[in-house]
Amino acid sequence: MKKNRFVIVMMALFAMASLALVSCKEDEADPPVPDFSSAIDDKTVTFTNLSTNATSYSWDFGDGSALSTEKDPVHTYAAYGDYDVRLTATGEGGSEIKKITISVVKVWPTITIDGSFADWAAVPSFYSGYGADGGSLTEAKVTSNAATSKLYIYIKGDLSAANHVIQTIINADGDTATGWQTTNLSGNGAEYQFEYYIHDLWGGTYSWNSDPGVQDWPWDIDITSGENGDITESSGVIGDAEIEFVIETSLMKDPVPASQIGIYFWAQNTDWNQVGQLPPVDAVPLQKVKMFNFQ
Question: What is the pTM of this model?
Fold first, then answer.
């Protein structure tokens, strides 16, 4: 009889243990599964949270900025580049992390050199307005392509025979302390000059190789071999008022263009003088090279 009681007691204890084990398994929460997608618009990224079994979130955007606890944050990066984004999802089942590397890159507009300027509408003005001494040019725009092998240029203004030569000087290394220095332009330091006879569709590329203080023609002879020099594509002048053309950055070999370069335009009716210049209207002094970023 005592043996039977012992067996019954053991069976009861086993049943209770089994029930407790089943109960623990039923109460154990599933771990969170972090996941997300991203939509990139220039430097602004919209993150969509796709996590499951989570109730709170922590985002590390990979750029040293503060963490975010929003479910679907929108983050603007200060610079282009690759960033390791980490999402920590937390729920009753613990915390899990997912990392995705995103590429925030410059998206360049598609410009076709065809004499129709509608594709320039989304490109902001690089220079606009008139200089202190008047001037015939009213607007200039500059953009590039993904390979940064071309400079696309749009110029608007009086492009009649009175201003048939467009001069473009470029500070290729981004350093104003090197290259050509002139009292006529502030923050110059140009290593290249591109001279384009817009009605004859002829261009020449010149490199700086002189003493910094030389104010007269301080450039080497044409460093291009083709008849059209640096101008590989051009719409030609439309209505004596607008033109678009391309400068190949491959012509700039010593120094090669840095990620930020300086550019300045002017138009004239003879070689090597500054008539019809287009400095920025808000710069002091007004005649100043403006910087262009490839990134």
Answer: 0.73
Residue pair 235/243 in contact (Cβ under 8 Å)? The answer is yes
Q: Grade residue 25 by pLDDT with cuts at 50, 70 and 90.
A: very low
Q: Which CATH number fits domain 36-104: 2.60.40.10, 3.10.20.880, 3.30.70.1120, 3.30.420.140?
A: 2.60.40.10
Q: CA dist 8 to 21, 22, 172, Å?
A: 20, 21, 93
Q: Which residues of 37-65 are buried (b: 16+ CB within 10 A; e: fewer)?
A: eeeeeeeebebebebebbeebbbbbbeee
What confidence score (pLDDT) does residue 221 get? 64
The strand order across the sheet containing 44-49 reads 36-41, 44-49, 74-76
Identify the CA nearest to 134 among candidates 103, 163, 107, 96: 163
Q: 26 CB contacts (<8 Å, ≥6 apart)?
A: none
